[in-house]
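BUG: 3D viewer hangs when loading the predicted structure for this chain

Environment: internal workstation, default settings.
Expected: structure renders.
Actual: progress bar stalls at 90%.

Input used:
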Amino acid sequence: MIGRRMDTSTKRSAPVVDASKGALLVLFLVTVIDMIGFGIVIPFLTYLVEDLTPANQEANIGIWVGVLMTSYSAAQFLFSPFWGSLSDRIGRRPVLMVGLVGNTVFFTMFGLANTLVLALLARFLAGVFNGNLAVARAYIGDVSTPQQLATRMGLIGAAFGLGFTFGPFIGGELSDPASRWAWFEGTIFDTNPYLLPCAVASLLSVLSLLVAIRNLPESLPPEFRNKNEQKSWAAGMVGTLKSTGSMLRSGNVSVVIWVSMLFIFGFTIMHAVFILYTQMSPSDGGLSFSEAENGRVFAMIGITGILTQGFLIGPLSRRFGTRRLIPMAILVTGVGLVLIPYTQFEQRWIHILIAGGLISIGNGLFQPSSSSFLTRIAKAEGYELGVVMGAQESVGALARIMGPLTGGFVWVFTDAREWPFDYHTAFHLCGLLMICAALLSLRLPPLPGDSDSNQQQNLAESE
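Structure tokens produced before the viewer hung:
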């Protein structure tokens, strides 16, 4: 069966060399910059599209927002296998360096884009060169003992949270600086109002590159590199799709992966339509938010998510068990998503913070819970963990591609209509997908050692 454990006793394993703090810092920065690159455009993307859309094509703004949002994730999905395979052949260090150079170039290119096509090209290429996150994980695997691995992989998780928090905040606070600070008037940042946040992201990438040159040694010795002929990109993608398809038909493992896919699909629809809603005028039902205000909302969501994973998930997992916490987290997220377009302008900050808080708490509980459950069920049923996690990552990437595209198209075809098929519709769709995910999660089996499993065992013994 594809994905089952195989005997690897005859294979050589590379000696583990402990990484320096400098090397771990580089990997942390690579991950943070990856998430900053994803999130930095969220607060201002709708405004940029409005500025670049020709006068007779305003009706397509929602579609362009969805396409630009999707292009980054699509490029990562398509090119992550390429970067991973290349790093197996030439080493991790040069691939990570190339990614940082690409970030520097294409972040700036996006800020300078003066047409939608050029913006799309820059965004896609930024995603191509930010497709090396798998290489950072492979580096950690190279330099970590089994005892160190969980903690160091947790470093990647923390970097995800920080990047998604600071990316939208930087993008919002530094957009259109000439309208806020006099010393930017008449400069290139006046004619290119979204260049400054992109330039800051490029600067962070340059600083990370300098740290990497000094502190990032190669983790994969030449004798342990893959000397076989490299597969073509098409062959690699076919292999990835076959492996993913196998996992989607693999009993309890497939249930977890499908639940994650539905959750991410619903969650990322919001990425495309949130700003389309908040930038609308109050007379049309919107909030008239600026780029900076949108960035602060997403920063709040990120911070609340970090606090949730730091302080809530442990006690709640012990109290309810991972299996029961998953549908609870999904429903909390869904309620927050549905509430967004019902925000009243007079109490907009109170309402949007309540909705955003529910979203961030639900997401902060779901992501680690679902990953933990998948890991445990895969081990319990004898699957190769790498294959299972790769399938989950592929399905998640596809959901992140479909979500913004779906949100953009739904918005274009419904936002000017009458309730309930108006600007509320996309958010209702988010809620519907969350309900489907929650119902499907009820099929998850109890796990040995989980609190709900223990409670069932105690009940059986008492009878």
